[in-house]
Amino acid sequence: MEKTNTSQSRRSFLKTSALAGGGLLIHFSGLAKFAAADRTANADTLAQWSELNGYIKIMPDSTIKIICPNPEFGQNVMTSLPMIVAEELDVDWQQVLVEMGHHDNVKLGPQFTGGSNSMRMYWRVLREAGATGRYMLVQAAAQTWAVPAEEITTKAGMLYHEKSGKKGKYGEFASKAATITVAKGVVKLKDLKNFSVVGNSKKNVEGSKIVSGKPLFGLDYKHEGMLIAMIHHPPAFGMKLKSFDAAHALKMPGITDVFTMKLYEDGFEQGGFDVRTFNDLLVVVGKTTWEVMEARKKLTVEWTQATDVVNTFGGRNGKREVKVPGELEDTDAQRAKMKEYAVKPGQQLRKDGDPETAFKNAAQIIERTYNAPFLAHNCMEPINFFAHVTDDMALLIGPVQIPGFVEPTLMKILKLPAEKIEIRMTRMGGGFGRKSYGHYLVETALISRRIKAPVKLIYTREDDATYGIYRPMYTATYRAALDADKKLIGFHLKGGGIPEHAVHANRFPAGAIDNYLAESWQIPSNITVGSFRAPGSNFAAAAEQSFLDELAEAMGKDPIDFRLELLKRAKENPVGRNNDYNPDRYAAVLQLVKEKSGWNGADHSRYSRGVSAYFCHASYAAHVIDMVMRDGQPYVERVFSAVDCGIVINPDAAVNMVQGAVVDGIGNSLYGGLTHKAGVVEESNFHKYRIIRMPEAPKKIEVSFVENDIDPTGLGEPPFPPVFGAVANALFKATGKRYYEQPFMLAKPTSSPNV
Fold first, then answer.
1. What pTM did the predictor assign?
2. Are 749 and 147 in contact (CB under 8 A)?
3. Which end of the chain, N or C, is less surrounded by CB atoms within 10 Å?
4. E strand segments, 601-632
C-alpha cells in the first residue's frame, strides 16, 4: 500500500463542499498556484467546473459524476482519465457519468492536450483525488456507525463493516464526508495488483453520441442570433492586404458587414502559442455559411508583397525576437537553399570521443541524406470557433487544445480579466497540434466585439490547408565510419530544416558509439510551423531508422540484432551522460516485436518486411511492417506493433491509438507533402493533398504492450514516428531500391548512394 502526501494547503490542493441536495464535491489541484473550487458552489454549476487533476461529485443516489478536464480529440481521455479516479475511489464503472469540463485557468490549470502528456501528467494526482474521496467516505461511515475506520472496507461504491454487518452506499455518506478534514499522509493508494478498473477495457463514454450523430463538435454549435464570419486570407505566404472593394459583396443576400482588422497590434508581445500567419485580416460577415462563401468571391482585392517583420515572443526565458522574411518562397528554391546550408558548418549539439579521427581512419564511410516536405494537419473538422463578446464579458465555444495558453492573449487584447472570459471546449474533429494555436479564437473574439453580436468563425477546407502552421520541412545527412572488420567506429548526424531542425542529439544511437557528432542548422521562413504528431521525431525516426537498416546491411547484420547490439552497449558501457532513453525499455519493444512478428520465420516469406523502433515522449515503440505488391503498387498488408508506455489504463483505447498512428504514419510516409510556388500552397484540398484511403489501410494491425508497473507515459505520438522508417525499409525489400525522399510514392528511388 502506497501512502500519498496531502500536505498542500486545502486551498491549493483539496477542496470539498456539501452541495445542495447532499452531494459531495472533491476538487484536486496538483498545481498549487491555482485557486481551489468555491465551497459554496452548487450542483447546478458543477458541470461548468473541470480540473486536469479531477473533480468528483457524489449524489445521494450514489451516482458518481467525474468531470474530464482535458480537451478530447479522439485520444479517448474522456474515458481513460476518469477511469483513474474511479479506480482509487473504488466505484463500479457503471455508476460513473463523465462530462467534459469548461475551462477555468485560475482554478483548474491550463488543461493542455498535447505532447502525449495526459496520462503521465495526471496519473498520480487523479489517483490521489480518488483515494482521498474514498478515505473521506470511510471516515464518514466510521463516525456514523461509531466503529473504527480501519475496520471498514469498500467495494464498487459500497462501504462495509463486517463485524457489525453494517453496509451502505457512498451516496448515503456524501454530505457528511464533505465535512471530513484530511490530515497529512493518511491517504493510501491502492496496490496496483488490486486494480479492477484500470487495466480493463472500457467503452468510449461518448461512443453512442458519436455514432448517432449527436452535436458534439464546434461546427455543430448554434446560438441565438449567431452570425457567420469568414476571413479572406492572402493567397500566398509573403503577401499582405493592400486594398479592397466590397461593394458587390455587400449587395449579396444575407451579408451584414465587410471590414479589415489587425489580429495583433504593432509591438504586441506574443505567447508561445500565439503563432499566426497573416495579421491584416479581411472579414466577411453574414447570416449563413453559404452566403458568406459566395460573397467572398465577389470581393475585389489587391495584395502586395510583405516586408520583413520582427515578432516578439515572451516566455520563461524572457523576450525573444523572431525575424520573418517577406519573400515569396518556392519549394525548389527552398530545396536548393537547404543543400547550400547542409555543407556549411552547423551548430554542434553533442560530441563524444574523436569523430574526426574515426572518419579519417575509416576503411569505409557510408553517407546518406534524407529529405521531407512540409506536412499539413488536414483535420477532418476545419478550424472554427464561436464567440460572443461584449464590453464586460466574453464567451467562446469550440475546438481548442490549449485554452489556458490562449486565455492570457484574450485578456490582453480584449482588456478583460480572466473571470470575465469563459472558454468551453467542444470535442475536436482532429487536432494533431493544429488546434494548439489559438489565433482563431482571438480572430473570432475580435470579430464579435467589432460587430457587437455572437458569431461563429469558419475556415473552409482551403482556408485551413493554406493558412500555415505545418510540420517543418526537414533534411538530415547521416554518416557512419566502419573499420576494416566492418565495425562501427564513428557516427555523424547533421540535420537542418525550414524553419526548424529535427536533430535530437541525445537520443539513440547516441551513447552506443564511441565517436559521435551531432550538428544542426535552420533557415528562417514566413511559412509558419508548429505542433504536429511528434513533429521533429517523425522525421528523425524515418531518417535514423532507414539509415540504421542500410548500415546493418553493409555490416552483414540482421537489422533487429544490430539495434539490440547497440542498445546492449548503451546499457553496459554507455558513452556520455546525457542519453535520454532507457536501453532496457528500448530493447524490450524490439524483442517483443521480433517475437510477435515471427521475424525470421519461413511462413512470412511472401512479405517484404521492414522494422523500425523509436523513443520519444517518454515511451518506446517498434513496428514490423509486412508489405506486398498489389497491382504494381506497394501495399502494407500487416503490421506488428510493440509499445512500452508504462501501465496501460484502457487497453482497447490504447490499441486503437496505436492502430491509428500506424495508419496515419503509412499515409504520411507514402503520400503526405505540401509544396509552394511563389508563396502559394499548391495542395489546397484533398484532390491534391493525398491522404491514405480506406482500401489502403492494413488488413491487420496487431498491437502488443510491454507489461510493467511503470507509471503511464505518452501514447498519442510515440507509435507514429517509427512507422515511417519501417515503411521505407519494407519498400527496399519490395523494390530493391532505397527511398530517401518523402513522400515515398512521389519520390524517385535510388539503388546507389546519395551524397
1. 0.92
2. no
3. N
4. 608-616, 619-630
